[in-house]
Amino acid sequence: MREQIVETAVVEFHRRGFAACSVDTITKAAGVPKGSFYNHFKSKEALAAEAVGRYAADAEWNSPVDPDLTPLGELRARFAAMRDVVAAYDYTRGCMIGNMGEEAADHSEVIRATVRECLDGWTTGIVALIQAAQAAGEVAQELNAELVGSFVLDSWEGAVLRAKVVKTGRPLDDFFVAVFDNLLR
Amino acid sequence: MREQIVETAVVEFHRRGFAACSVDTITKAAGVPKGSFYNHFKSKEALAAEAVGRYAADAEWNSPVDPDLTPLGELRARFAAMRDVVAAYDYTRGCMIGNMGEEAADHSEVIRATVRECLDGWTTGIVALIQAAQAAGEVAQELNAELVGSFVLDSWEGAVLRAKVVKTGRPLDDFFVAVFDNLLR
């Protein structure tokens, strides 16, 4: 029943947002008695933090990619996989990590800490690929990989937000050109 | 009384978010009777859309800057003015336009349309400065100013979100290096 609640929470928080999604919404959607919720979770906040972690762990970003890709090719393929997810939702929902950060970072320390961890982990992966691309001669040595890697993730989150607002993939297309043709060279 | 409600709504929606901020919260904070709200506004949504427009119109972005600056210098100065605002709030709140887009774009057409307009208008200003910087020889001609200008704004929104999550100005500092030293050159 705990697992059922977490899986439902990922979907419902992603679709509705934190404040607009109540414990009642989640237990109803999960088909479990509301009374059982607090046997498993201290609060809606605690569940939301767990749901963010689950969303990040399950993200398409972590799927296998063609092992023959260069480091820069892999970075592009990983973002392309994320773009496909955003497009499949018709540019609704956005990124749950970004949404939760936007909505709850000022109001819940446990959610803020989890969002931060997820973004840190994701940044580490991006930075490693940029460093490998530098070692392979695909990206100029003089770029600060840590700084640019962190910036690239922030840009992605901003582009996903803009896509949610304009309801087209154009901001994501712009991201690919600006990052892979103009910035990482 | 209408003006008092709009001004209070800008502050309260910015601080609390859309779903977490009720009509009751706003009328109490504005010191006006709750009953009077619907004499002035059709709904919380309608007020939120108006508040987003007001926030954008009043943004520090539109303040005068040193007229002797080059176009690229002006672009940097305008973002620096926004950074000062974000820092003055100790990296809480974030950008109200981004927040509202994140939270309400899927759920309110009137808010989505206003957020889109505000981002479009802001993009137009950024693009014009990049084009002027190209004309002045400060930025390479081969950059697509419209595409990069839109990307720069998305990156800014992403950086402000990250700053809200990490509660430091580092993502904003990274934005300045990546955009002004690495991208616009």
Structure description:
The structure is a homodimer. By secondary structure, chain A is mainly alpha-helical. The longest helix of chain A is centred in the middle third of the chain and has 27 residues. Chain A has 9 helices and no strands. Chain A has 2 domains: about 55 residues, Homeodomain-like (Arc Repressor Mutant, subunit A), CATH 1.10.10.60; about 120 residues, Tetracycline Repressor, domain 2 (Orthogonal Bundle). The interface between A and B is large, with 47 and 47 residues.
Structure summarized in a few sentences:
The structure is a homodimer of 185-residue chains. Chain A is mainly alpha-helical and 185 residues long. Chain A has helices at 2-16, 23-30, 37-40, 44-57, 71-88, 96-104, 109-135, 145-166, 170-183.
Name some characteristics of this structure.
Arc Repressor Mutant, subunit A; elongated; 9 helices; 2 domains; homodimer; mainly alpha; Tetracycline Repressor, domain 2
Backbone shape of chain A? elongated
Largest sheet of chain A: none
| Number of E-type strands of chain A | 0
**Tally of discrete structural domains of chain A:** 2
Question: Helix and strand string of chain A, N-terminal first?
Answer: HHHHHHHHH
How would you state the average pLDDT of chain A, rounded? Answer: 97
Q: Strand portion of chain A, in percent? A: under 5%
Broad CATH class of the largest domain in chain A: Mainly Alpha
Largest interface comes to: A-B, 47 and 47 residues
Count of helical stretches of chain A: 9
Low-confidence stretches of chain A: none
Quaternary state reads: homodimer
